[in-house]
Structure formats: structure tokens, C-alpha cells
């Protein structure tokens, strides 16, 4: 993802040789739909994803290839989020955003590591809304830093080029050093969220996600039940915050480098008319939505969906053998020369200029089909609320130094901390 260019952004299908398998990557809309919808069960999620995530989420739903239990669990996730009114999400997000921005504006030297801070903020939002509690400041800092270390070490490519031998793959995972990081993160979640719920110290009514699991018969006593609850809470917290945190980090970086765009966005998000009618008198909600969508286009949180072929397939006249890897990459789809105008330009106005909506196979930051992210609505409300609480109050500026690139091992989070200058907007504007 850091070095994608040229043919990958122009071709419809590429089939390449790995040491022991084939690897196919497709941008063709029909192929994308066939693989992602997977109506015949021929393109399950790769075991590589499962192996990389087990130390952190155990047998949680996100790492599973598919099946009836996975479908049922995804419905529980969707149902629990659907019970939370948008007003509740907004109220919690507004309060926490105000708390964080207050602290950022007091930061020494006016510099903030925005990637870590957005991770902490969004973990707090997700945990408080779905589980009724949040980490302490010390736990929050430790949790987000551990997660960043996990991302840096979880190299999917090493498993993709390795032999299928289970022992070899286990050795590679062990040498990545994921287990101790995952164990410490799980312990933090166990103490803060799981045990209080299981012991009754926190009422289920205050934790909608745990309540939905209980109502579906997914909560049981004993060590096994404790670990099963921990697995799914880990998925909710990690997947639930990562999308928003990653997107907001890249969006803040883009806006910090475009003071004109940032200033007009701040005005529009405050309900004021921007000079020259830049945002076409769009509502604050529409402006926030356009900013988020464009950040999701250029920096899709999941840069690639890794599938495997259970049967031989033929696409565009090319043979893809069984047991091949099949990659559908929003990273290339969202930047494809034939699918987008000015594909490499950060241009949020493209979402407000009356252009036709993109095809669902050319814009899929949350996936497509049965495996689409159940938290997409939650993320949209959260991002809109954070942007409306941040930009009208604070001016963001770039700091000197090497620019971040997508890490790309698991998600598109930056490969290094994005440090931005942050100052009170009213003071900066005189």
C-alpha cells in the first residue's frame, strides 16, 4: 500500500506468482462483486487474517472465515448497535471530544501526536457507548501504544509467502512477537470491561453490546465463558475504533497541509457561509460527511480484503487456481484511473458537486456484501461529531519531518505518529 503505483492503478486483473501460490488482485467491477459477495462460498476470508488476529481477539468474529455462527454473531453486533440512538452516540462523542480538544489546546509546545490521540478518543467513545465504561488515562495510553506495536509486527505478507505447514506458520507468528502484546491488551480489556460485566458490578443495561450477547445466549459462566466474551468485546473495541481513528488521522493531516480548505471547512461546520460559496451552502452535516468520505476514499481503513479460492476460477480469461490468494483492495479501487477523476487529489467537493454516486464496487471503505462492517453508521455519526467539535475550535498545522505513509499490515493507519501543531482558532484568527 505504501508503494502501489502504475499498473495496479490501471489494470483490471493481475495474477502473480508467490513462492507457493498464485496471488490475484482485481479492480474489475464484476470480479470485485463476485469475490466480495461470494454467494457460492468459494472466496472465504483467508486463514492469514485469522492467524494474525488470534493473539489479540482469540476466536472473535472478525478473524473467522465464515459460517453460520459468524453470521449469527454479526447479527448480534448489528442489533446491539441499532439499539443505540444516534442522539446518545452524539452526546457521548460531543462530551469526550470537548474534553480531548481542551487538553490538546493546553499541550506543551502546541504539538499533539494526533494518531495516538484519535485512537484514545475513539476507544473511549466506543467503550462508553457500547460497554458503559472507559479506560483510565494510563490504561488508555498503554492500550493504544500496544495496538500500534501490534500493527507494526503483524506482517501479512510473511504468512502469504510461507509454506502452508501449520508448524511453520505458528513459528512465524511466534517470531513476530504478537502473543505478549495481545496478552497484555486482553488483560486490560478483561479487567476494565469483562469482569465487571460478569460479576454484576456493571449492570448489563448500561452495556448494550454485552446485553445483546446475553439476550442471544452468548454469555456463560466460568473461564471459557469469560474468554468468549472477551473475544467479542475485543472485536468491538478494536474494529470499532480503528476505522474512525485511522480516517481522522489522515483527514487531519490533509487539512493541516491545506489551510484554505481547513478554514472554510471550520466556518461551514460552524454553520457560517464560507467565502466564495466554497461549500455551496451545504449544511454542517453535509460538509462533515464530504470530508469523511474523501478521507475514506484516499485512505480506506482496510486497504485490502484478503480472500482465498476454494475452487479454480477463471476471470477475464485468466486462470486462478484453487488455494490462491485473492485480493480486493479498496486502496487501488479508490484510486483507479478509470473509476475516478483526479484520483490522487484530496477533493471533498466531489461529494457535493452533484456528480453521480460512485458504483458500490468502486467505493467500499467498509466492505461489501454479508461481511460489510456493521459499525459503518456508528463511525459516520462519530466522525461527523468529532469534526464539528474540533475544526471550529482548533487550527491544525503540519510539523517538520518525514510524512507518514500507510502501515498497511492490518489497516491503513499511519506508519509513524502524525504530529500536528494545534492552536485556538479564535486566537489564531485574531
From TrEMBL:
CDD domains cross-referenced by the UniProt entry: cytochrome_P450
Database matches in PROSITE patterns: CYTOCHROME_P450
Alphabetical UniProt keywords: Heme, Iron, Metal-binding, Monooxygenase, Oxidoreductase
Binding site for heme: 373
Cofactor: heme
The keyword Nucleus is assigned to this record: no
UniProt entry tagged with the keyword Flavoprotein: no
GO MF, one example: oxidoreductase activity, acting on paired donors, with incorporation or reduction of molecular oxygen
Domain of life: Bacteria
Family named by the database record: Belongs to the cytochrome P450 family.
Protein name: Cytochrome P450
